[in-house]
Amino acid sequence: MSMLAGFDIVTELSNAALVKLFKSQFKIDGVAANPPFELNLPVSSGGIVGNAHLIVTDITLDLNADDTVTITLPFDRTSVTITSPVAFTVCPLDGSITINAPILLTDSGAQKVLAVDFTSSPVTVTFSAASQNLITTQLGPLAAVFIQNATSGLSNFIHAMGLKKFDSVSFAVTPGSDGALSPTLTYERLEVHCLASVDRSTQALGLFGILINANDAMGDHTQIDASMVDGSHDVCVMFSPQVFDTFMFCPGVATALGVSPTSSLPTSCGTAGGVAVGGATLTSLTDAFGSGVITLGGSITKSGFCYTATGSFSATLTFSVIGGVITPSVSVGQPSVDIDIPWYCWLVVGVVLGVIGVIVVAIVDEVVEAVASSVAKSALAGALGKLGGVPAGGFGGAVFDSIAISPEGLGLCGVIPVQLLAPATTSITVSGSVTTTHSTVLSSGTFHSDDCPVGDFPYTEYGRQQTASYQLAATLVALPVTIVCSLRSGTTSVPLTGTSGQVTLPVDALFPMPLPGGTTVTEQARIAYTISGNLVELTNVPADGDYQVDLDITATDCSGFVVTRSVPIEFNGDVVVLGGGYYAKHRLCIRAFLDKIERERYIPHKIVWPPVDYPAPEEVREFIRAVLAIGTDEAEQIANSTRLAHGTSYHRAIWARKSLGASLAATHGGTR
Amino acid sequence: MPDDDVTRQSPLTDSSELRPLPKVPPEKLLHVSKHKPGWLKVDSFDELMRHEKPIVDRIARTLNGGNLFLAHPIRLLRDIGVDLSDRAVKEVIGSQPGLTGLSGLPYQAIKNSEEEQNVRVHVHGLFKRQKP
pLDDT (tens digit, 0 to 9) for every residue of chain B, 132 residues total? Predict the structure, then answer.
């Protein structure tokens, strides 16, 4: 069984890795294919015009022996709406779409990028038995035409996608010249082929590369009958021994021995007769791939007074991967040495042996370290090409966790962490706000404040007409969707029927007058509404004061699936604005009060005054809670003045506690 | 009786240059115990050195011959068939001060081995010649 089939380097991406790639990089009509996702596809075929809304629940790939990929997209709660020649909708439908498209390398600037060609890819739409029954029930004899045209329309859309490039999976290819492993993986030749298998976990996409120009005519991917990936890895890379020699071993040896260029090394890396190393001469250095080990061999000569010694040595090199770090391990055998002496040289042999042993160990250590560094650099920086440089959403760098040596080459396997965006969930999103459309002065005068801050301040009371505009959008629901809105206050809920009208609801309204404490009134608030498509608009009556209601939305899709959402709506129809520097003086007054309190008693947690600048409700609540806990009349006055200073922000704080179920109401009630 | 090599004696010098030794494949090397005694009778140091070339060649053809020679030259010479007289032994030891500390133990260990040593010593001469 061949893994390289004559190629210099083979990189295999597992089926699971490709699925990750599709989920992160593949878009259909601008929508990321990260299930579940929804598609709105036009249907136009045979005079039938309409739209298909699909909810795709999964994506699976199959890599085929003819270098095509079969993309299967199961769909559910799908609807097809035909607008011409007659208008009707068929829903809910479920089934699957199967697309069979060639996967290939194509040019993208100076790079080759992975791509899938949808131009003429066969598309099959399969409806479930229940969906077929539904279609037949609704369309009768036209069912077959419907299915045919739906399939045809979808095919047209898929074909129009053309050649989809995965720009993040790109490679440098320079035909006719030697490539490189690092710093950028550069091929002399690169082919992409599928390694098919019945078992998806052993299917792989193979990138078959030639790095050495002299090997250009080599390589036959059909000789590979099984993949390296085994279901536990996303990627496997195998280098041939020649690649190891050319790009890792020999450069590593040259670095270790301080020799440049590589051809200045002795055989087998270069042509020099020898290179001086530590007082000896290294006359050869070779490597050989075995099962689990790389055997390094070398010969060395050393001569001196009274002797000439020729030694040969061997070492076994293995690699392990721990925590993604490639670590070499070397075992050096005892050197084999021939010592020639011209006459009886007493004691010289022992000395020579010791010297040669030290030199051999030093050479092997340095060589192994440099080679291991080269292997690691090649594996981590270059082996996957640009796969390692994709930002979040695409492939991250591969993390290798296994390494294997065989007579065929050096293999690395690992995983590719992919940061996928969180898939969408079935929901209703409500976006909008409350804006003041008209403001009227209701009253004005002078507010005499006996509390913090003491003084006379001009005030103006405004009546504000406000409109709450909210756009509704449903995600992952089967169209058409029936939306029912209602307004709720406490336990009373009133539906908003039709497209417009007015409803009344019992609310606890707040009025700022009389200053500073204002008034709380339980009343029937009047709210006008209009519903236009997905836009809901609610309008208050200023005389009803300040209050909050909840807008409840219930969406029921065509399959009967129900999604609900509730949004608090706050109207402030009656507000007071104080002049005369009231707010600045209030802030100083509060600060002085807090400083005084902190001097006089132990306060476990610093009390923070929320500035009058739309603070978060919890900040206001926390402040009032902390001030009231002080338990003095002055503290109660401070809490009261806070209501006046913060105005609508205070209201939000009070209303928010309703939904939180907090105990502020009782506490506040005690201060009034 | 000496073999043909004895008749092809080459001039011996004190030069450090290495004379070529017969190239013998490892499998053709003869274990030291296979040599027959009485190959060469030597009665003096000078006579021994006159036969240096054939003796060195015979050592080269002996498994671990150089190693055995370094371990105990006198025992090796006798084992490869050189009959040294007492006088010759006395003159050899007298001419080579380093030979006084010889031990039979490493010699026997090498002799017992049936395999070629990792470190192979190739002896190109026997002893340093005495200056006239």
Answer: 444 333 333 333 344 456 778 888 888 899 999 999 999 999 999 999 999 999 999 999 999 998 898 888 899 999 999 999 999 999 988 887 667 667 788 789 889 988 888 778 888 888 877 655
Handedness of CA A205, A211, A216, A217 (dihedral sign): negative
pTM score of the predicted model: 0.72
The answer to whether the beta carbons of residues A430 and A552 sit under 8 Å apart is: no
H or E element in which residue A374 lies: helix A348-377
Instruction: Name which of A303, A308, A332, A343 to mutate to probe chain B: the one with the most chain B Cβ atoms within 10 A of its Cβ.
Output: A343
Report helix, strand or coil for A2. coil
Q: Return d(Cα A487, Cα B92) in angstroms, integer.
A: 123
Rounded CA Rg of chain A: 39
Q: Least CB-CB distance to B128: which of A308, A343, A347?
A: A343
Distance of CA A410 to the CA centre of its chain: 32
Name the nearest CA neighbour of A575 among A510, A652, A505: A510
Please write the tens of the pLDDT for every residue from A174-196.
999 999 887 778 899 999 999 99
Would you state the structure tokens that stand for residue A235, as one six-digit string? Answer: 């990627």
Contact A261, A225 (CB under 8 A): no
In this predicted model, which residue has the larger pLDDT, A472 or A604?
A472
Least confident of A454-463, A655-664, B80-89: A655-664
Q: Which residues of A fall below an 8 Å CB-CB distance to B?
A: 305-306, 308, 334-344, 346-347, 349, 353
- From chain B, the residues in CB contact with A308 under 8 A are 18
- Say how far apart CA A226 and CA A9 lie, in whole Å: 16
Give the residue carrying structure tokens 């030749």.
Answer: A189
Nearest chain A residue to B18, by CA: A342
Nearest-CA distance A310 → chain B (Å):
10
User: What is the spatial distance between Cα A524 and Cα A42, in angstroms, rounded to a whole number?
Assistant: 48
Q: Inter-chain contact A337–B120, Cβ cutoff 8 Å? A: yes
Question: What tokens does A21 get?
Answer: 């790639």
Contacts of B71 in chain A (CB under 8 A): none
Select from A338, A344, A346 the Cβ nearest to the Cβ of B122: A338
Contact check, Cβ <8 Å, B125/A342 = yes
Count interface pairs A-B at CB distance under 8 A.
59
- A336: exposed, middle or buried (Cβ count in 10 Å: 0-12, 13-18, 19+): middle
Residue A162 banded pLDDT, cuts 50, 70, 90: very high
Angle (CA) B119-B120-B122 rounded to 5° is 145
A31-32 and A27-28 beta bridge pairing: antiparallel
Using CA atoms, how far apart are residues A337 and A501, in angstroms rounded to an integer? 105
What is d(CA A661, CA A370) in angstroms, rounded to the nearest whole number? 67
A175-202 burial string, b = 16+ CB within 10 Å, else e?
eeeebbbbeebbbbbbbbbbbbbeeeeb
Asked whether the beta carbons of residue A349 and residue B119 sit closer than 8 angstroms, the reply is yes
- CB spacing of B121 vs A341 below 8 angstroms: yes
CB atoms A338 and B120 under 8 Å: yes
Q: Which of B122, B127, B129, B130 to mutate to test the interface with A (most CBs of A within 10 A)?
A: B122
DSSP class of residue A601? S
For chain B, helix (H) and strand (E) counts, in that order, are 7, 3
Q: A306 vs B125: CB contact, 8 Å cut-off?
A: no
Q: CA A1 → CA A202, A263, A407, distances in Å?
A: 15, 34, 12
- State the smallest CA–CA distance between residue B112 and chain A in angstroms: 20
Q: How far is CA A332 from the centre of its chain?
A: 47
Q: How confident is the model at residue A147 (pLDDT cuts 50, 70, 90)?
A: confident
Tell me the residues of B at the A interface, defined by beta carbons under 8 Å apart: 14-19, 66, 69-70, 73, 96, 98, 118-128
